[in-house]
Amino acid sequence: MFKKFFFNVVKRFRHSAAPGWIVLCIDFVLFTVAFIVAEAFAIRSVAGLTIESLLFKYIITAGVTLLLFLAMKPYRNIIRHMGLNDIFRVLIVCALPILIFGSINFFNNKLDVIDGDYLLSYRAIAMLYSILAVLMLLARFTLLYIYNQYFKRSRPICNVVIYGAGAAGVIANNALKQDLHQEFRVVAFIDDDKTKVNQQLDSVPVMRARDVLNPKFVKAKDVTQIIIAIPTIRLMHKQAITNRALDLGLTVKAVPHISLWMNGTFTSTQIQDIKIEDLLEREPIKIDNINVIREVLDKTILVTGAAGSIGSEICRQLLQYKPKQIVMLDQAESPLYDLQFELKNNEPYKKYVDSMAFVIANVKDYSRMEEVFEQYRPNLVYHAAAYKHVPFMEENPYEAVYVNVFGSKNVADLAIKYGAEKFVMVSTDKAVNPTNVMGATKRMAEIYIQSRSTERTHFVTTRFGNVLGSNGSVIPLFKKQLAAGGPLTVTHKDIIRYFMTIPEACNLVLEAGAMGQGGDIFVFDMGKPVKIYDLAKKMIQLSGLKGIEIKEIGLRPGEKLYEELLATKENNIPTYHPKILRAEVRKYKLEDIDREYGELQDILYTLDDRQIVAKMKSIVPEFISNNSVYCELDKKAEK
User: Fold this and answer.
1) Shared domain check, 346 and 209
2) pLDDT tens digits for range 318-352
3) Which residue of the set 196, 409, 422, 430 is catalytic?
4) Are residues 262 and 119 part of one domain?
5) Torsion over CA: 351, 357, 359, 363 (sign)
6) Same domain, yes or no, for 230 and 207?
7) pTM over 0.90
8) Is residue 546 classed as helix, strand or coil in its secondary structure?
9) For helices 437-450 and 609-619, angle between their N-to-C axes, nearest 10 degrees
10) Which residues pair with 466 in a beta bridge?
11) Domain hosting residue 192, numbered range
12) Cα Rg, the chain, nearest whole Å
């Protein structure tokens, strides 16, 4: 009968805290037990005690204790999440009455205010509240033990290793114990601190990484998961741990920085999955903020393609340098609306709302763009508007040339006409030795812009590879395919790409823009190239899904295996920033460019894709098509 009642009570409160009044009642019952025990021992040394005096003592001590309970509220603590602070509070609640009644006894002995027969002896006071503290803590630990034991019966077991035997590791360990849905058994802590190795933490051994992250240990202990509990760990170290763990078939998670904990507390649900972006990310770069501030402060800035991945991040970063106004221009209505909503409603951007302007326009529309320049008169232009999807542009050369080449020409010409101080263009590694229409159009835009620098308007080009998380990049595609149950598709098993985070790329764009003096093409240090096939394997491992295959579908039209940042005839020169190099590129005569681009514009009106691409190849001789219908044009040129 009692057992059934007990389990019904546990079920009632298993997902919520027991009401405080119940805990308070239990604590008060424990006080009564402690009082009886303490007086039973104390009465042996005190003669002449009566029922009335005992009752008086009980009423006085019970009243003071109840007031302290109500003031300190030890009954409000959630027992299943009990920690050191909760234990300390119980001890304080039991220590204060000793001080209170001890002081009363002391002054009463001096002043003889109360009849001594009714005083609590020092021995009785100390015994009463010492017993009460023990009983309260014992009751709480007993309930905690019963609670955990009851739920262990139905929870699946997961053997875990925690990397980090510091404060975050201890907190992670405690959080895992409180998980309601799964029983986590921490079989080892790993730490790089030699003084901690061979010690124990919560009865769990602290070991070296090499002794744990090996097939023998993982198999012997049936480890399935590792949690990195060093929030300030260096990025390269974190990546090395993750790669090693993935090779062993472990699921990898991490404890976030304390600033990301909800309400300053931490639970097992806040342990984060390691994402593929974490494995591709590099150590944060350092930029010379003074240069950028000098370039941007109190200036009017136009950002084209402002709703895109790069353009929107450029806007976010520029706002923090306090420009006079940022004109955010894009032809995509919905994404621009989303950006407007974000910046006007979220910190830290909304405080700059008076310096924001949002414009719907297409860079290929000269009249509309001139209206924008006439109205805002920008001092600086960051040109990020462009078509970028290789297969689409291979099928639509007319649109690619119209936007990427002549749209860029429109913005550049208007920057000169309206006296902009600097024009910074966002280019791509696909412009180097292009094998597709998109890359060739970006190279043609580079050529035009490089030739247009004047004493008043300086033109700067920045060139980099893929960015993590950009719209249409391979990682979002893989995530969608994983969500659908696979397979993950790669165009070729040996294809490689460079990757950079969006904030890092935009940081370098601002820094390169500030250092450029006109006619410069800057290339960014993209780090080590990444094999897309290996990237797909890592994403499958991180997902924890089984049986997901990787399917090779063949190179897309215009796609090449290896991207480059410098053309064959280009060299690079270091700058003061280790991540930014200046490319020494071929110079073009202004009159030749004007003639060639004029002829291309005439051909554009014919809407003949083959003629358009043929003219592009004559302007950019290194444009050799790959896996494309336009490969025939290269064969004819060879003959």
Assistant:
1) no
2) 998 999 999 999 999 999 999 999 999 988 888 89
3) 430
4) no
5) negative
6) yes
7) no
8) coil
9) 50
10) 499
11) 157-274
12) 36
